[in-house]
């Protein structure tokens, strides 16, 4: 295979220049990595449980994908791991085919993302209209919030693989069986602590960054240590967990398997490049090297392949964790590596503590995350005027919610092209 000059295989490998600023910034990078690790820990637990693969799968993914993407990826500031957007794709797959199919799907998706990078697909992310990306993000936020209803209500998830249908069925089952007020109280208390933390720190003039999600989990776990509520349970103390790993397709047809693998790969690539672009914009004044998009795809593909093969789930760049990394002053990949090392230490030394975390608290953390992703204030500003972009945004979000992520993006882009052509004709 003949590669263009800018896409030679050697340019996808780590180089010494990746750590050129490390001598000057290692202390700040180390502290940034610890900070991101504190943010990432509850999210990794929650996303693993939400997917159906379990808390340990979320932690394994955070560690392995975090390290591999940091070393091989194209961004100096990106932090990778399990994300809410990925659960949007994985939850219906697990509901229909079982958790064992995640390993072969993750391996196939990883290979696809690697091929995207080698073929130079990364530059295409800049051609996706902002209205489609905003709608894509809003749709993901709505799905993440609805996926938390079973844990928030303390009831088993209703059958099905469509988000709205499952959410409605779960609510009906909860009303029929009797509302678990204790679970709802835990959710409300967790959300209160999570959103009140920044204001409380400001009021007390505390300059140290303390993530609200982490603090809420610490407080609620301490208060409910002996309470008889649903909890995370035991987790393994190893980075490799092949107990639920199988290369069986679990009865999936070839077409269904390929579509699912492509959906996972497309999401991994899109979210990773979007997250890296956000990081570049946040750090543009610091003179850091911008993301190499095709190398970023290569690194994310390797991360997803390895994590899925060793007991984790498909991964992607995480906008929230990457943003925390940039705000914490990180300059090199060392910060993302430290984030993974921090999670390893927690896994091996505090597993018994993690086992007592209430699942309703994790549900609340993700509900809070979905609210932040949706950013109601920003959405209200974007939708204040009526225009083609606003229509594209709303249609894309509803398509993601009602169909899936790939169709949502495709419909949004198609609608944008139709409107653009209409406007050109109108001008002419």
Architecture overview:
The protein is mainly α. It is 67% helix and 1% strand. It contains 18 helices and 2 strands. It has a two-stranded antiparallel sheet with strand order 1-2. Helix 3 runs antiparallel to helix 10 and helix 4 runs antiparallel to helix 11. The chain is globular. The model has no long low-confidence stretch (mean pLDDT 86).
Count of DSSP H/I helices: 18
The helix-strand sequence is: HHEHHHHHHHHHEHHHHHHH
Q: What is the beta-strand fraction?
A: under 5%
Give the domain tally: 1
Tell me the radius of gyration.
21 Å
Low-confidence stretches: none
Query: What's the main sheet like?
Result: 2 strands, antiparallel
Number of strands: 2
| Overall body shape | globular
Mean pLDDT: 86
Structural class: mainly alpha
Note the gap between the termini.
45 Å
Helix content: 55-70%
Strand order of the largest sheet: 1-2
